[in-house]
Design goal:
This protein is α/β, with parallel strands linked by helices. A hairpin with a 2-residue loop joins strand 9 (344-349) and strand 10. It has a seven-stranded parallel beta sheet with strand order 5-4-3-2-1-7-6. It is 31% helix and 18% strand. It folds into two domains: 8-329, Glycosidases (TIM Barrel, Alpha-Beta Barrel); 336-420, Immunoglobulin-like (Sandwich), CATH 2.60.40. Helix 4 packs across helix 5, helix 4 crosses helix 10 (310-326) and helix 6 (178-194) runs parallel beside helix 8. It has helices at 2-31, 35-44, 81-86, 98-107, 144-155, 178-194, 211-214, 216-226, 279-291, 310-326; strands spanning 46-50, 112-118, 158-163, 201-204, 231-232, 259-263, 295-300, 334-335, 344-349, 352-357, 365-367, 374-379, 386-390, 393-397, 408-414. The structure holds alpha-D-glucopyranose. Alpha-D-glucopyranose binds next to loops.
Length: 423
Amino acid sequence: MKIRLVTLLVLLGGLLLSATTVSAQETESYSQAKPEDMQWFRDAKFGLFIHWGPVSLKGTEIGWSRGGERRGIKGVGPIPVEEYDNLYKKFNPVKFNAKEWVQIAKDAGMKYLVFTSKHHDGFSMFDSKLTDHKITNSPFKRDVVAELAKACHEGGLKLGFYYSPVDWYHPDYRTENHKRYIEFLHGQIRELCTNYGQLDVMWFDSLGGTAEDWDSKNMFKMIRELQPHIIINDRAGLPADFGTPEQEIGKFQTDRAWESCITIGKQWAWKPADEIKSVSECVHTLVRCAGGDGNLLFNVGPMPDGRIEPRQVVRLRKMGEFLNQCGESIYGTRGGPFPPDSWGASTHKDNKIYVHVLNWESDKLVLPPIKRRIVKNSILNGGVCFVKQTAEGIEISTREPNKKKIDTVIVLELDGPAADAMK
Ligand code: GLC
């Protein structure tokens, strides 16, 4: 009898233990993606961010230029709310061609695309069953999200949806009926995770809202159940899978993935005659992100007729040309070992370090010492260089004509893995 009781207790204990293990795993699985599902993202380095909606007809900022109450956030946009909210009735971007957008991204060397499925203005760029305030009720009538998803899947680009839990249009948002808004939000996220095939990134933008504001815990559980390999950014009140520095290059950080989102011009949505970055600034931005061990999500705002502005396309294609030649020093690399500095940044892969010299500040670049021996050196985009390695450090120089206008990519081949060269 005694023995039986003990056995029973042990069994019960075992059951309890396995129950707690299961719930620990459950917590893990909703809060964080598996490391193997992060790999493509870490290798990709470069994606296209697209901010688009009926507001492009005005050429003002998406969401923020809408007049009216922002419920909890100060300020009022310049376009009267009645006008802003009715812009979609005139929105007919007949030149929109999802395949063309995907081709532009691919030509730029981008590996994924993130599109604004709904911004703070509450307008759905997809055929949601939960609202009438949506693209399929515009004269255009087409589900832009569906067309983009199809083009990405066919073109081999990974796909992400930007979604703003902040919604200045929805009548229940941050009112005493906010619970109802949460149901709507979860319902729309369910639609996005169900109706458009494989989704690789969910990109929330909640302007500092907490996990409780969106019931993010349950929302994440649903998302990961519907899209088991998805990765999620850090803007729904939970740290999730990657950080999102905005309009700045993330700091050197190798233990957690990050992605800087940066506009090609000054505005997220299309702005006529916007001041746009030079080719050199575009490439440097990408190189500095990779050198800091992060990604660049580079933003364009397409025009009201549906095309990405030709001036922007030129820049993107030039970035693609750079990557055609120097892609091995970006894709699949990790940042460092040399911390980024005013001269440029470095990346590494296997036995190679890529030193991206963005500014030759003097005739010699002097880098800190490394533990491994440099056995070979070259310039990836043409020419030869001189490398002197001593116990004090590494000196790199080259003749003037070998210095590239945008980035001189120097390859240092080591006698072993570059990953631990500085440890
Ligand atoms: C900001 C803005 C928004 C933009 C986003 C992109 O949070 O509110 O307009 O879409 O950044 O990171």
